[in-house]
Design goal:
Keywords: Signal. By secondary structure, the chain is mainly alpha-helical. The chain has six helices and three strands, in the order H-H-H-E-E-H-H-E-H. Strands 2-1-3 form a three-stranded mixed β-sheet. Helix 1 runs parallel beside helix 5 and helix 4 packs across helix 5.
Amino acid sequence: MNKTFMGKVVMLIALLFVGNQVSAQSFLNKLKKATDKVTETVSSVTDTDSSNEAAQADTASVKVKWDKLPVYHAEMVYLLDPVSGDTLRNEDGTVQYEVALRDQFGNRRTPETIKAQKKAVNDAVAAILVKVGGGALIGGLAKGGKGAAIGAGVGALASAGDIDQAVKWKKVLKQQDKLMDAYSEHFTDEGKPKDASVDPMAIEDLSLENSQPTSASTDKIKEEFEKAKDFEAEGDSAWSDLIG
């Protein structure tokens, strides 16, 4: 088994189980559920084994379009009067603004949508780990994680690319958690500041300095948020084309 590949597997498991025991147990339960879908133990399968194709056919597969998955950031939006186009200001003369959550494709999304995507990605990673080690992996995790990535067949059913992406996305989600914590503390779901006296640029985990501020009329902002709510209402089906 390639040592580099094994190193990435171990790194992924470490990322998954950093944190308190409650989180680890929750994810372990997901893994155990995922193994119910596995119809053939992979511990006897090797990379060169001719039965590999059959094992893949018998094992629940997960296909993720990693390059299409949204990555979110916060963006400052200055409010414009829908009639005059003038910048709206507060009584003290400061500019009125909202902070929107957007993906790299320019789509505005709600906090609930971002939470739903996190769950979908985590479930996909759980399924990938099952493919990596099957029953051997689950057995190791059930014993506290010791030796979880050791045993014949580890890596037989999951591609190195999936492991690379899973490791990357666990880090992405960790950063995203910081973004969402900062957002929920300082803004409503609609992006309105809870305390107008707080300088949004000073909120470190929002990283607003990394995105270009925009301006939009209040009508357009309202319409955009309503579309984001419609997308939220799609639920799990919103991710079916990306994770399946």
